């Protein structure tokens, strides 16, 4: 079969780039309008909003999410190491900004446990370096005398002085200053990634890496909340191995457990878990999820207030939550420099979770999103709120599922949720003064059920793919036992190494013919395959490049039971001995054979084929080393009078072979070396003399 390649018109990339540049730099009223409407997608869909059809579903889902947001925001403030008021700010601003800039109709963007944990770890580290006491219940102080200068420098970063300053404000202001600087830098990273179209970076975070990271971080979150559950006062552990160190401190101080907190925690966990299980079982009968967290918080606050649990039993409570908004403040530049590295994994994780959830629900409900615009949206959900004392946000799966199950149609539901949070900010926040911290810890721990249930999926995951399971285990272990950032990095590197190893040591096989057909398959995997006389068919299931060149050759020599280099050396050695015997006038060879019989002895018995067919259907590309490797085996086997035929090469592989000179200068022998199917190559080999 002779197939002629199409002649492609040579593309002048320089002209194309200049044309795109001219188009991008030009400014017309229509183009400006399109830019604004693309940047604020709400301007496109809001005028087309079907009020009668959508409004009730959006109002219902917005109210439910708002009711869920309030207790979660207060609870997740423990993870971030900040006051509850800042979590409420975060939830409010994120919903408003995503309403204006997001392209997904359903995702719920706001406070998220993993993001809060990553923020909290940076905040705790910087507070510790500045000399502040990380103990939540310790009397507020700027630090001891030896750290007075450090504390002074840290507070002057906020244009404050030691003289006349409220010590609590010093620690709190520095903590939120670190959080806002971290959030601002993360948002800038996300916007820059959107400008330079770097969304492809998220492809390197596989599902196994994300699941392992989420599970490992969930173990860290659970560990951090245990001290609140049982009411013991231990220092927050920092650095690598925080999970192990925290558990050691917990068991050392278990005798100091507060009985009131232990009983409260047990009751709350039983109620929350029972309500969640019942909700999951009967969710098809419920029009909207039960607001269990809000009920638990209201009841627990009333019991704590009227039972005076803080005064009588020394139970730790949330404390005063101010109402209204604190005046906006520009994040401190000198603090940005301290957290610039920490902001990178935060930006990446926030973006990946948001885009993956957006794509998942867009596919489910048959509409499209723009991943690049999602990056801008989540970036500005971090940049703008950072001026209003808020910290990093992301889309959250649990709240998004609740939104869709309660009839959400558009992001109008996000505005409704923001109004609920605003109501709490303006009027209801002080009512949570007596709320016990152990109740908030219970809400956080119960919300981790989904991530912790991933342990039950390990056997099924292992059955499906062992390599992905190892990636999950490594990422989860590193995230839990070392740190979340290191765990994410380890997961990415390990998953990429797995891909490299797979291409370095891929499957190789000799193929046999399916009886009475022109098809060929792996002889070691299938029964009743016929071997082709005098022909070996070799398959290599990976690209052929510099990293797997040696494995390709070793596998080929092993499966064909012939190393052409060794065989050539053996023949030369034998011929040399024969010449020596002939020069001595001995007409008998070294093996005792006559001269006429020597020719037969030179042909080794183990060579049982005269043609080698290389199935290139799984070779997606060749680099220079790959081309040279094929040229090498062509030459080596030719010295043994064995022809090498290539079959099923894709166009890019053929082009690489042509450029590498595999077919000679004029490609005259190409039709005798390259075939479009294995069967054609086999038939050609059989016809050879």
From TrEMBL:
InterPro entries: S04_transporter_CS, SLC26A/SulP_dom, SLC26A/SulP_fam, STAS_dom, STAS_dom_sf. Residues 525-685 form the STAS domain. Its main location: membrane. It holds the Pfam family Sulfate_transp. It is found in: Apical cell membrane. One of its GO terms (molecular function) is secondary active sulfate transmembrane transporter activity. It catalyses: sulfate(out) + 2 chloride(in) = sulfate(in) + 2 chloride(out); iodide(in) + chloride(out) = iodide(out) + chloride(in); oxalate(out) + 2 chloride(in) = oxalate(in) + 2 chloride(out); nitrate(in) + chloride(out) = nitrate(out) + chloride(in). Keywords: Cell membrane, Glycoprotein, Membrane, Phosphoprotein, Transmembrane, Transmembrane helix, Transport. Belongs to the SLC26A/SulP transporter (TC 2.A.53) family. NCBIfam families: sulP. This is Sulfate transporter. It comes from Tachuris rubrigastra.
